[in-house]
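Step 1: inspect the first sequence and its tokens.
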Amino acid sequence: MTKQAIYVELKARSGKEEEVATFLKSAQALVAQEPGTVTWFAVRYDQRTFAIFDAFDDEAGRQAHLNGKVAAALMARAEELLAEAPQLRTPEVLAEKLPG
């Protein structure tokens, strides 16, 4: 059962909105290589507001993701792409419905 999650809200710098969208779309290939990441979503709320939601069966999977390639790539480009630091939350999953 999925027990852990990450929610990260991102605010794009003015003029960098499409670069953030492109970055998030490209991150899917990196996440696909993470066996501990059960589900992953990159979403756009409005022109400048984006978020990432991912879930894991255990804390080890969550930590592997937090220390993985997507997080490293995002932090390497954060100052360039984001208007403010990413807002990271680490919720506990109370219930789930996944395919399969």
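Step 2: inspect the second sequence and its tokens, then contrast the two.
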Amino acid sequence: MPISTGSQDCLTDLTQFGADPGLLHAYTYIPQSYSKNGPLVVVLHGSTQSAESYNRGAGWSELADQCGAALLYPEQRKTNNPISSFNWFKSGDSRRDAGEPLSIHHMIERVISEHAIDPARVFITGMSSGGAMTSVMLATYPEVFAGGAIIAGLPYRSADNLMQAAIRMKGYGGPSDHKLDALVREASTFEGPWPTISVWHGGSDSTVATANADSIVRQWQQIHQVEGPPTRIETVEGVPRQVWCNDKGREVIEEYIIEGMGHGTPIMAGGDDGLGEEDKYMLEVGISSTRQIARFWGLVA
């Protein structure tokens, strides 16, 4: 049954995508501009949000109309988590071939098969608990993704229970840099090439401390062998962008820390490049993370 989210978009139920051990919902958006062998973007909402509200706020379906990308929206059930958070910190939901990650993997396989997706152009993004679950998916199924974007999220396996999660969200403790690297490498048998990583965070985020963004970068620096300071720092829409390039000159990690921004997804709703709608946790700051992430992935010029 379609879900109306305004004149620009319409999400459709995805059913029968495997055993669904994580007991998740799923929705898709396949724009009229999509053609065979097109890309797929998996979008994970944050706590207290739904697939519908995140799509409306971030504007992914508007962008999909422009670039011809298919969208997949996994959605948490309140029976799994009372505030609709993905359970990124639970042992059974942070491992390969189990729980919520396996459900999401099965959804992806279904959409790839049904819509003839280019398997080399599958991407994933999420905010808050969806950002932390994006970290989980990139670590546990790295062979599936060409790139990932983590917004206001946390590193993979930075917490293993709810109490640890609350502490890590405030920026305290956490695995060492050496352990962060090992956690990703031990999550699968994959040996690369690894997905590219885009990291976004509010400089005044009091829900998930900005230190988590830097930890995500350090976790993937070692994986991509780009340790040390960024290759360059530039400004995009008035926001500093740090970039790490590999020895072939390819951009493999980017990081945006937006000064003065709280907890949420950065949007720019107005103007020719505007996308989405301002709402709780959808923050108007003059830069569209959706559009810039899509540029990093090569989905738009």
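Step 3: confirm your contrast with the notes below.
The chain has one domain: 3-296. Residues 99-115 form the longest helix (17 residues).
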